[in-house]
Amino acid sequence: MAAPRFPKAWLVYAAVLTAAVVIGEISGFLRGEPFSWQTLLNWIVTLALLTATWGYAMQRPVGNELYWRRAFWILVVVTALMMLRVALASPAALVPVAAFMAFLVPAYVAAWAYAYRSAQLWPPAAR
Question: What integer is the mean pLDDT of 75-104?
Answer without folding.
Answer: 87
